[in-house]
Amino acid sequence: MKYVYPLCVMLACCGAGFCQRVAVVPKAPPEPTTATGSSTLDVMVTDKAGHPIPGLQQQDFTLLDDRHPTAIENFKAYQDTNPEEDSTSILILIDDVNNDFNIVSNERGQIDSYLRRNHGQLPAPVSIAYLTERGFDLVVPPSTDGNLVASVLDQRQGELRDIDRSAGFYGFSEMMQMSIDAFTKMLRYESRVPGRKLVIWISKGWRLFDSPNVVFTDQQERAFFNLVVELSTGLRQARVVLYAVDPYGLEDAGGFRTFLWQDFLKPVRSPEQAQPGSFALQVFAVHSGGKVLTSSNDIAGEIAQCAQDASAWYRFAFSPARSEKPDTWHDLQVKVDKPKMIVRTSNGYYAQP
Hints:
Elements: H1 6-14, H2 18-22, E1 39-46, E2 61-65, E3 68-70, E4 73-79, E5 88-95, H3 101-115, E6 121-132, E7 135-145, H4 146-157, H5 168-191, E8 196-202, H6 218-238, E9 240-245, H7 281-287, E10 292-293, H8 299-307, E11 312-318, E12 328-336, E13 342-344, E14 348-351
Parallel strand pairs: 5-6, 5-8, 8-9, 9-10
Antiparallel strand pairs: 1-11, 1-13, 2-3, 2-12, 4-11, 6-7, 12-14
Helix pairs in contact: 1-5, 3-4, 3-8, 5-6
């Protein structure tokens, strides 16, 4: 079943816009490596309730690259953030483009509640950014003082204004382009920040499932594929774990938008498999090793649930494979030799010659 994409309906009618812009995205560079030729992999291990499990050893893990056992290199276990070794930071991103004004106002209050918990003591440095009509806008620099972050956010909110959204297909396309541009700028920003990053994007996601069925041209499929490769590679290079938190909560519980993205979770291995749903916010969250949280009015609690991933985690390296042709997908799977444990990490990479 093929779903609906308003921006592509517009493209089919007028032959211009979003897909033409992403068609010129450059090819992904070779997988970033360490001085020893290895690539970093950040791994979360939790119980079924989502609580991080510390204390595991290298021998407890098995890494599979395209189902083949692969050597684990430079294993390191972390419990609580230690800036002297490898830091974890948190970015909370408020989406003022894809969410309604009342929803954004409510989530601001919920974020304030989270920041002031535990007398303002945060588990890791937290920064705040907005997605506005101006794009990705960092409004509060990182700090472990939640009260300070909340105070700065309160002062900056008066400077923000809502986007004047266009109507119909053109409005959807404009919002979609702003979202992807902000995604790219967020990755560019985080690539300059050392260590591992947890990005909590508070949004219902971009509107990918709202139009009649359409047929894509080869050029459009190639554009979608290039975009998936670039964003997926960018997440890995920047060591970003992405979390998609739906601020509509119970208002949107059971709505088709809260689950249709699950139809696009399979890795995109070729342009023929690429669709706009392949670069949904929720899809990238799962593929990065993060979470998708929906159907709850407790946004502060959901932020805390994401942030607890900063308390215990594992980092190791592996030697990525080379391929005969560019952008060859490789599945990654990490297994733990312990019962009742859930592992979350990047689900794969695009190998290069």
